[in-house]
């Protein structure tokens, strides 16, 4: 059976697209995960990214305290908006990585020149860094 050239070209294009999409730039380092998560929550209110880069412990606490991850993200995002904090940059000040745990000290910058400092804990879950909490 002979495959028409057009079908072959379409199949090759699909394979290339799948390869590139599966190798999409996902944050691999604790600093990159932290930047992605804080931007997703503070600047965008992006629930999908918040779920992806939050540990199971964080997600469980969000559901326990707010009823759902969506409500948790909305509450954090609203508090930043209500306080007129428009995130423009997540600056990594310190990073300490040991095995499957990391601790970062970050400075959040907003459009008006305000800054906030936070300590961030991360843990590896299923081979991927996630922001967590240590209670």
List the helices and strands and how they pair.
Layout: H1 5-22, H2 30-44, H3 47-52, H4 56-66, H5 69-82, E1 87-98, E2 101-110, E3 115-125, E4 128-132
Antiparallel strand pairs: 1-2, 2-3, 3-4
Based on the model shown, name its key terms.
single chain, 135 residues, alpha+beta, Nuclear Transport Factor 2, Chain: A, 4-stranded antiparallel β-sheet, 5 helices, 4 strands, 47% helix
pLDDT < 50 runs, ≥5 residues: 16-24
- Coarse shape: globular
Query: In the CATH hierarchy, what is the class?
Result: Alpha Beta
Order of helices and strands: HHHHHEEEE
Question: What is the count of β-strands?
Answer: 4
Average pLDDT value? Answer: 84
CATH topology: Nuclear Transport Factor 2, Chain: A
Give the termini distance in whole angstroms.
Answer: 64 Å
Structural class: alpha+beta
CATH architectural category:
Roll
Using only C-alpha atoms, the radius of gyration works out to 19 Å
Number of domains: 1
Task: Please describe what this structure looks like.
With 135 residues, the chain is an alpha+beta fold. The chain has one domain (27-132): Nuclear Transport Factor 2, Chain: A. The protein is 47% helix and 28% strand. It has helices at 5-22, 30-44, 47-52, 56-66, 69-82; strands at 87-98, 101-110, 115-125, 128-132. A 4-stranded antiparallel beta sheet has the order 1-2-3-4. A hairpin with a 2-residue loop joins strand 1 (87-98) and strand 2. The protein is globular and about 35 Å long.
